[in-house]
């Protein structure tokens, strides 16, 4: 099994569980929970694949992903009452998922021969768009547009990965460095309640 | 004309009419009605085609679909006052559309050489995603995520079709059996108000 | 630089600025503003490319677009307090963007060998879908479904372009005529508050 595949599976589990939990907070039925879990975990990668024309999209060609998502969703439904006692672990799950997806996205975009800036954009899309779709399906303004520096962290991590990878660092080191940066910065951002500088100080748009 | 094409056209008419009626309940203008009718009827098949890389997507290559949707929408607008007296027929229309789209979706996915589980997922997407898009465009949480067993019926019917088709039954018989199952189960589900077992009995997520 | 590219860039600037302004009215953070600007300007062309299978989608292959959008968004953020004094210019920007995108969309669809009706539909999608995505992301029913004759103007302009182009008029003349029709009709429509004829006169759907 290639390292990219393992990364993808780990990220898939993280996102499927966090998606299922969100769907249960919205009181969706079993089918709805499964769909939100599926969309949250494969949504970003699916959009990335569609945008670069890599079809059929990845998760359709590798049943592992489908089974992993079904399994993770089932676990999330059965153990939902315990999961609320492990909120911190779930936050960690989610953050690791973001790091893994960003790097995998950048790798796939690079392999498609696209411009570095586009690669970072595609890495960010891979990591964030599942959550955007989840919010749209649950009828909310996507959280990453007005809270948290979630996406900014992906842009940072994706750029670091691409730079260190281009600079000649071994793949594994580049991935480790970028992954750690994403995980640390996001954790700090949530703990310290960082947000992007506001552009509304003088309230021109009241 | 192939049997798959006829199936597709019948499903298109059913969905276009039900989409136009929804748009009129939302008081959209003529253009809005037409778009919602179009999206409801071709949305599922379009997503299926995009996911498996079958582009340009089907409806663009066969003007029949475009004309059929324009015609059905016009009929729905002109005869809207009569359509409310035929609610049962419209429900039947919609249910037949679901059955037809599920089977057509499974067939196209099978022809693309995908895994049986993915074929059933794509059949369900073909049948349900038009309605999901309609609900998103009308700013609502998609109904299939919290009410009705709509999608579950598609999964059931798609699986039956695939199993009987693989088991060696003639295409026409397999389609008839699967189609009848979808139509009967959905009708029973709505009449008897069946829903998926709740996962919220103990209200962990209050 | 080809004429189609120049057209595309001008339209991109117009839409990015109008997208950024909308995002600022919604009080999104800097990242949210950038994404809404990006989606508003490349959303329509991206859907067109995906539907006809022209991948990687256009803006990923031409960094000019990405830089232009970043630049235009920056300008919109910095000069936002002045932009409200130039509302009329912004309306003009938006209208020119619509005209340019419609024509570019029809051209690309024609080059893909699609049916004229589909070409006009794709031209309209190119011009309108960015705004639809913007409204969905901001959790509103897309404005073009219930107000303004925005899309109708695109259908009109696209048809005129296709007809005059097919009739043998030189490209530049056909584009000029169609572009002017879109700009004039839309301006008149907004000034005179034109809307599509209502289908709800007798209120069948109360």
From TrEMBL, chains A, B, C:
Instruction: Spell out the subcellular localization from the entry.
Output: Cell membrane
TM segment ranges:
6-23, 30-47, 59-79, 91-109, 115-137, 149-167, 173-191
- One Pfam family of this protein, by short name? Gly_transporter
- Which PANTHER family does the entry mention? INNER MEMBRANE PROTEIN, UPF0126 INNER MEMBRANE PROTEIN YADS-RELATED
Query: At the top level of its lineage, which domain of life is listed?
Result: Bacteria
What is the protein name given in its UniProt record?
Answer: Trimeric intracellular cation channel family protein
Q: What is the similarity comment for this entry?
A: Belongs to the UPF0126 family.
> Which species is the source of this protein?
Dokdonia genika
User: Which InterPro entries does this one have?
Assistant: Gly_transporter (IPR005115)
Name all Glycine transporter domain ranges. 6-80, 92-163
Topology of the protein relative to the lipid bilayer: Multi-pass membrane protein
List keywords of the entry alphabetically: Cell membrane, Membrane, Transmembrane, Transmembrane helix
């Amino acid at each position: 099994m290639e390292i990219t595949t393992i990364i993808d599976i780990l990220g898939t589990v993280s996102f499927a569980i966090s998606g299922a939990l969100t769907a249960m907070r919205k009181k969706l039925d079993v089918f709805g929970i499964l769909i939100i879990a599926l969309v949250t975990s494969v949504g970003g990668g699916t959009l990335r694949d569609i945008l670069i024309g890599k079809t059929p999209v990845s998760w359709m060609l590798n049943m592992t992903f489908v089974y992993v998502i079904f399994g993770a969703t089932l676990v999330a439904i059965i153990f939902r009452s315990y999961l609320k006692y492990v909120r911190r672990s779930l936050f960690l799950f989610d953050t690791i998922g973001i790091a893994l997806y960003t790097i995998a996205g950048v790798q796939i975009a690079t392999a498609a021969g696209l411009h570095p800036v586009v690669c970072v954009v595609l890495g960010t899309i891979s990591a964030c768009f599942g959550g955007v779709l989840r919010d749209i399906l649950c009828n909310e303004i996507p959280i990453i547009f007005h809270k948290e520096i979630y996406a900014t962290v992906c842009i940072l991590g994706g750029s670091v990965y691409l730079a260190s990878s281009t600079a000649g660092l071994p793949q594994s080191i580049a991935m480790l460095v970028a992954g750690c940066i994403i995980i640390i910065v996001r954790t700090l951002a949530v703990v310290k309640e960082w947000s992007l500088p506001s552009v509304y100080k003088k309230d021109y748009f009241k």
